[in-house]
Amino acid sequence: MIDITGYLVLSYSNCHREAWLVAHRIFPENDNPNLALGRLLHETSYENRGEKDVAIDNIKLDLVEEKKGKTIISEIKKSK
Asked: How far apart are CA 72 and CA 40, in angstroms?
């Protein structure tokens, strides 16, 4: 059985082939420089804001914080 995750839905919206690969747990090479940059950004961004890497069932949120009584959920990505 395939778990439906936020990453799988995002992959499907970008490319059906990518979603198939993700669903079958086939991931890109680990030494890809773009992936290394993404990991660095994820580890160093927003260190003093909210709670990072919040897991809810099979979903993982990058950043959850409270602002003016509202819950803000953020995804950390690099800009072009």
From this structure: 22
pLDDT tens-digit series, residues 29-45? 777 788 788 888 888 88
- CB 52 within 8 Å of CB 46: yes
Q: pTM, whole model, 2 decimals?
A: 0.52
Which domain, by its residues, includes 12? Answer: 6-74
Residue 35 in any domain: the answer is yes
Q: Which of 52, 64, 56, 58 is nearest to 22 (CA)?
A: 58
Q: Determine which helix (DSSP H) or strand (DSSP E) holds 73, and give its type and residue range.
A: strand 70-74
- For residue 5, the SS3 value is coil
